Sequence to fold (430 residues):
Amino acid sequence: LEIKAVRGMHDLLGDEAAKWQYVEARIRSILETFGYSEIRTPVLESAEVFTQAVGDNTDIVEKQMYTVQDRSHPESGKSETLVLRPEATSSVVRAVLEHQLHRAPHPQRLYYVLPMFRYERPQKGRLRQFHQIGAELIQDPSPEADAEMIVLLDTIFRTFGLKDFEIRINSVGSEACRPQYKEALKAYLHPHLEALCEQCKKRYERAPMRILDCKVESCKVIAEKAPRMVDHLDAESKAHFEGVKSRLREARVAFVEDTSIVRGLDYYSRTAFEFTSSLLGAQSALGGGGRYDELASRFGAPAFPAVGWALGFERLIMALQAKDLLSGGVKKPDFYFAPLGEKAFEALYALSIQMKRQGVSVEFSYERDKKLKWLMKQADRSGARFTLLLGEDELAAGSAALKNMSTGEQEKLSLADIEAELKRRACHEA
Ligand code: HAM
Fold:
């Protein structure tokens, strides 16, 4: 076949889709328990949403955005450049400002489950269309808010029994102390400029902190001895960071301080964190986030405090599968209906439709004249809990046989009240 899905973008089929639904439903339920409500923003946004919010110097804006030229306006002849959302925090802040949610009297807790698009080199754990579940807590400056966010993500991973991850946190300071730190960092890096990789040479002027998380060995060696943001925090940011850490200790959430966490997006201030897992290979981040109190001002709006994270859905599924923690999820039908003969087919066809309309799941094949052996094979394959067998003799006698597929036991049911009997079993043992 010549026509295929776009590189780095995947179809989701059958059992795989069922597992996603299961994982997603559990996460939604935790988010709702923590008081978050869903927000869905459009896939396309004006390019400025990301160029302004995420920052021109980031890989995402420089190299990874899928842009779409909109049709030109019939009168002005102008056309707008649109972008397929590469991340959703910028979209959420755009929506918050547009609907004035930041003016509400209470902090707003929002979550999303959305596809993202980044033009990256596809590899294990790195896709061009991938999915994030994210949460944003708007209008709360307190360290308790940051701690809540980290505890929430920890709760989500642990609910599936996943323990193989580390929480790495850092403070990237605020507008009040970051400029001085950047100067100190540049002064340290200056004599090493020649030894930095080509990309870091470019970062030196515009985004020197990104040099700290460069993966090139020669840059890593230089970064190791660089001055650290945590030692240059002003009193307020320092107190805030200490507050976040002590709340995490109180909640018994283990973390490590990692001064190399600066994140690939440059809208963060104060807390920045990543959840990493050795189960994932090179792309080890299960999720990440932080505080972004200065983001709204990049849209020319008054700033408001906010903190959030996003987890990579495909990476979470990968980690759960690696640990065999995804056995739940695939839904099986309650019943497989097996008709022997034409009259039984007619009766079970009608019954199967009635049952499905009443919320009971039934698998029934429209292939006629099948033998018992074929039917039982199909029943096994379907994973149904019960098989309802109906032959001509039983039909004449007004009864059917119900086989429990896990115990092998068989019982006789009267056709007169068959619907009620099946419903009772479907909900009782679900
Ligand atoms: P991010 O670190 O760019 O943050 O992405 C969050 C997570 O999405 C990553 O930790 C990773 O699990 C997953 N991810 C990123 N890129 C890919 C990819 N190409 N393929 C598969 N998975 C990927 C953000 O997007 C921020 N908006 C998070 C945030 C929310 N900060 C504050 N609020």
Q: What stands out?
A: Residues 14-33 form the longest helix (20 residues). The pocket of histidyl-adenosine monophosphate is lined by residues 87-89, 118, 120, 125-127, 130, 132, 134, 136, 264-265, 285-290, 292, 308-312, 314-315 (CB under 6 Å).
